[in-house]
Amino acid sequence: MKSLQQSLALGMTMPVYIFCGNDAYLMEQALHQLSEVVNPGGNPWNQEIMRGDEHEILDVIDAVQSAGFFTDKKLVIVRDAVWLRPRRKKAADHAENEPDGGDKKQLEQLIQYVRDPNPATVLVMTVDGNVNRASRLVKAVASSGRIVEFRAPKGAEREQWLANYLRAAGKTVEPGLCAYLSLMCGDGVAALKSEADKLILYCASQTLIRQEDAEAVVSRSSLAGVFELTDLVVAKKAAAAVDVLRRLLIQGEAPQALVGMLSHQYRTTIAAKDMLQRGFRSPEIASKLGINPYFAKKCVALSRTLDYRQLMRILDILLLADLDGKNGKGDAAQLLELAILKICAL
Q1: What is the pLDDT of residues 275-313, one digit of tens each?
Q2: 0.85 cut: is pTM over it?
Q3: Does domain 155-217 have CATH number 1.10.238.10?
């Protein structure tokens, strides 16, 4: 993706692209940037947008073979190019690697076009998710054009995106704030941008964004509720913990998912406790365990409150609640609530 941005910044384009991946926001940004390079005036005569699930492949071939008006290049975008999707394997068709979604004769014509594309046209075919790398069409694009994957950033890359975005808006942040935002926001760049934009507006009159600013305005993920729930359990505030649990359930969180998140936090706390005793510090623990720094700090703080016996007992209680729910020995939500009360009573 970075190489695409660099080439477009220099005004360089390829005749054929495949845009694929799971981050729609990044893909749309790239399409906009490509359009600015190929069709800077936004002339509708020099840009054609089609849908792969509504148009035949021959329609696409006709579009890319026709020239634009008073321009060096014409841009043709095919959204949801169904013929690029990985084929579902069939018992009697293991050798077939070509994608579904188009007549084979038409598909062959598109492959031939891609091998010798019109230099006056830029064709972009997009697909949500992966493409069939074994297909002849994808191989042809890889040879004569470019395949660009748009993947939602993870971990440190996700935090760096946030830091750069806030810096571009003229904001500085307290240490650890980007780690907190990354953990609390939903997946994908669109979710990060949405929460960052709210925070920028909330802090319009100040340059520095503080932790309390983020806690006041950012929509928190279910993991934030788990942190709150764990804090209340450790403080043995059973009634408040049950209230938080019921709120999470009302918000649509599945009991099994909450058990999993709680168990993950306590397992990570055991690992953090062990590493603390061996002289590691919180940033090192986050790096070694491959977890978000904010999450690491929470686990380190929790590890100083509970001993190994308590932590193992808590995991046993959560495991029993999970197994009982899966085996039909009670309502999963009620079993989890009972487990929370047992943990508070330790």
Answers
A1: 999 999 988 998 899 888 888 988 999 999 999 999 999
A2: no
A3: no
